Amino acid sequence: MKQVVSGQDLIDAGMPQGKWFRDALDAANTVLSEGGSMEGALEAARAFQPGPTLALRADNDIEIYSNIRAENAFEQDNVEKVNATMRALVRTPVVRSAAIMPDACPAGPIGTIPVGGVVASEAIHPGMHSADICCSMAISIFPDVDPKALLDAVHAVTHFGPGGRPRGAQFKPSQATLSAFQQNPYLRDGALSAGIEHFATQGDGNHFAYVGTMKSTGETALVTHHGSRAPGARLYDKGMKVANRFREQLSPQTHRENAWIPADTEEGDLYWSALQTIRQWTKENHYVLHDMAAARLSAKVADRFWNEHNFVFRKSDGLFYHGKGATPAFDKWAEDATDLTIIPLNMAEPILIVRGSNAAHGLGFSPHGAGRNFSRSAHMRRLAEEYGADARGLSPNNLADVLKKETAGLDVRFFSGFADASELPSAYKSAANVRAQIEHYGLAEVVDEVVPFGSIMAGDWQRDAPWRKRRERR
Q: Any transmembrane segments, and where (predicted)?
């Protein structure tokens, strides 16, 4: 009778049962079919046995540098939640250090990196840059251009809302960027077509185009805020799947959102390369909009720079620094880095131009904005209680009152035609408090400001969505 190695044979030999048994049994039975011994077959199977898994770190193993203070009861609740999620996160075995920025707020179940969180790790964690990879800021200076003319030009050329530009109205990234997409297996399928469809678009949520004047010179400036759109989201999805396969093998106890891709693997090399390609796509995505506005006005751009605030950076110590809603403030954070970065606060406040201080207690980062104390839905409930609401939320008249109160004197526009009250200044933390905490903790030096004239956001593009109308009829 032909001898066959069974799963029970592996268990009897002291091997822990798992998904790896299938490959192990194939290898063992190949040895037997080629005339090998049972001992040789079991040795071949044992080669597939996963190594010991990594246990979670103990509480307080990793120091968390806190650069945030509560100014009121709402902020105290927010700070406690941020601290709790960071304490759970730093139990991840490969995490080496962490910091909290003044604009921090929770962004998921406990253990998920908060917005305003910075984590240094031996590996790359897709969940720590999230789906909005390379969410970033870009500024261009337009001398001798009227702010309203620039805002009108931007409104005419940009694209907000879900999806990309329709066929016939699409633009292509550079050939170098397209080639990089084609060469990387993380980007070749799906992300490549999305990289064309979503190019020269800004998305929704808190993304914006903002026009103002430089406090130092009076020159007109355009500032845009958006990430990598669908190409980045698709890379994130693939990265999370790969990271979770490693998590199941290396550290099943690790929180799913903190799964990692080891740096010293082919998967790690390819993912790191894909991140750099997505970064280049996003930079081009900012500047194509700025250039289209300049062309419409026959104007010249005198100066420009940009920075991401939702990305992964590798420092000379070999660690990967994940900034989830955190602005790099260390020297030479990228090959194209200037010594200045951009921190927005809200549509009614100046945008800060800062020089980073590379503070050790901030792991070399500064805040990325004002942050929230409340989720969008919670903020809308508060506005409805204060102003009154209809079935769709704030009534048009009440929404007009809120807009008048919070954006007086500004040219505030919503691309969809419907204002999004969840993005008004009251949805965010006090800009003055965040600015004061930047100074208090020594995270950056404010060197200039963009004084607001007006801005464009996606707005409530779902207000007339079919699903919402069906719900109202019911």
A: none
- How many structural domains comprise the chain? 2
* Bridge partners (DSSP) listed for residue 150: none
**Residue 214 included in any domain:** yes
CA torsion, ordered 48, 52, 57, 58, to nearest 10 deg: 150
Range of the domain at 300: 136-473
Instruction: Kindly write down the DSSP assignment for every residue of 203-242, as one continuous string.
Output: BSTT-EEEEEEETTT--EEEEEEE--HHHHHHHHHHHHHH
In contact, 206 and 427? CB cutoff 8 Å: no
* Alpha-carbon distance values, 207 to 136, 225, 240, 331 (Å): 9, 5, 24, 27
pTM: 0.88
Q: Is residue 52 part of a domain?
A: no
Q: What are phi and psi of 106, to 5 degrees?
A: -60, 155
DSSP 84-149: HHHHHHTTSTTEEEEEEEEEEE--SSTTSPPEEEEEEESSB-GGGT-SSTT-EEEEEEETT--HHH
Give the up-direction half-sphere exposure of residue 414: CA atoms within 13 A in the CB hemisphere.
Answer: 20
Residue from 15, 69, 78, 93 nearest 47 by CA: 15
Report the CATH number at residue 434.
3.90.1860.10
> Using one digit for the tens of pLDDT, what is the confidence trace for 306-334?
999 999 999 999 999 999 999 999 999 99
Q: DSSP label at 336? A: T
